[in-house]
Design goal:
The chain has one domain. Helix 4 crosses helix 11 and helix 8 crosses helix 11. It is mainly α. 38% of the residues are buried. The chain has 16 helices and no strands. It starts with 13 loop residues before the first helix and ends with a helix.
Length: 376
């Protein structure tokens, strides 16, 4: 997606949203049918969740190096994450190349958010089990040294090209500072008068969402663990966060002067896409489950769960109704990605997940560079 622009007072979408709500009635689907489909999906998700929960060890259990009970590793990395990251980046790149009407760039961002939440939670809990605590100071220092230098270089190059007339957009101190200190999303939504940032740097909105999350989450997780919260209680807390963000989006779309960009670019309306990944890491982390011995597509329950997840993702892509896209879309995508990530990691040696771990994925997308920047 392109850079967000100032939206308050720009135009009213209230009438559009009323019309969108009317479209639900135009679908003429019986309430009983819709309710039945929802109940079946939730039942499948509950089945996956209960089975995966039992296979995931408590946070207090020590990690067993080289255990055959955990999903296979490659060079210390979690299997399939490189491939999933490559898919998310590919979706965004193709969408930005002018095929946004066919390839949903927003889904690529959501996948990347989910992966971030899963990875950061796995790494933080690993650290706690190795050392007995989460070193918050060291975490933030790693973030600064890994992200700030490449961000600074990127902005220097982009803004220099603008000043030389070789790149579109504009340059302003407010724009540069907003991007440099991870305020790009809210700056673009509420404060940017236009033409104050270099063309192409609008993608920094997603980095801002992640950094806002990282400013809070590690300390909160460490605090909850320090006061004795169990894995189950932390999962409940994170689930409540996801429901609260969904309710917040549902409220915002009823306001008359708030455009769709408000729910797409803001940290307070997109953070649940990251939290769903955290939920997977805590509630059903495939890293600690016994590696799958057979292809999940040849087992009835896993095959049904994966098919349901794929169908839900497809629905979130093709259903273009405004109210749905601004509210339930992100929540459903988060729920659907949970079993997809779980099986992709646990059954990494089985087709089609083997493709996610093929060497060409590593070489084509410069895994070492991407992973070093993305690893927390």
């Amino acid at each position: 997606m392109d850079a967000p622009r100032r939206i308050l007072g720009r135009r009213s979408q209230y009438d559009d949203r009323v019309a969108s709500l009317s479209l639900l009635a135009m679908l003429r689907l019986p309430t009983a049918t819709i309710g039945s489909l929802v109940r079946r999906f939730l039942a499948l998700w509950r089945t996956f969740f209960s089975n995966a929960w039992s296979a995931s060890r408590p946070l207090s259990s020590p990690a067993t190096a080289g255990s055959s009970q955990s999903a296979p590793f490659r060079n210390g990395t979690i299997p399939s994450l490189d491939g999933l990251r490559a898919i998310s980046i590919s979706i965004v790149l193709v969408s930005h190349a002018g095929y946004g009407n066919v390839v949903p760039g927003g889904l690529g961002v959501t996948i990347f958010f989910f992966l971030s939440g899963y990875l950061i939670t796995t790494l933080l809990t690993d650290e706690r089990e190795r050392s007995g605590r989460i070193h918050i100071g060291k975490f933030y220092l790693r973030r600064v040294f890994r992200l700030f230098p490449p961000l600074l270089v990127t902005l220097v190059i982009a803004d220099s090209l603008v000043l030389l007339g070789l790149l579109g957009g504009g340059v302003s101190w407010t724009g540069v500072l907003a991007q440099l200190f991870y305020f790009a999303n809210y700056y673009g939504l509420f404060f940017d008068p236009g033409n104050t940032t270099a063309a192409g740097t609008g993608i920094l909105w997603s980095l801002a969402v992640e950094e806002h999350f990282y400013m809070v989450y590690p300390a909160v997780l460490a605090g909850l663990l320090a006061v004795g919260f169990s894995r189950q209680r932390i999962v409940v807390v994170l689930a409540v966060v996801c429901l609260t963000v969904l309710a917040w989006r549902m409220y915002l779309v009823t306001l008359p002067n708030v455009a769709t960009e408000r729910t797409y670019y803001s940290s307070d309306t997109r953070v649940d896409s990251i939290v769903f990944g955290c939920l997977l890491a805590l509630a059903a982390n495939p890293r600690f489950a016994k590696a799958g011995t057979s292809n999940p597509f040849f087992e009835l329950t896993p095959a049904i769960i994966l098919a349901a997840a794929a169908i839900v993702l497809l629905i979130t892509i093709v259903w273009r109704e405004t109210y749905f896209r601004e509210t339930f879309r992100y929540s459903l995508q988060g729920l659907a990605l949970m079993p997809i990530f779980y099986f992709a990691i646990r059954y990494a040696v089985h087709f089609p997940f083997t493709a996610l771990n093929h060497p060409w994925v590593v070489s084509l997308f410069l895994r070492d560079v991407l992973y070093s920047l993305h690893r927390h």
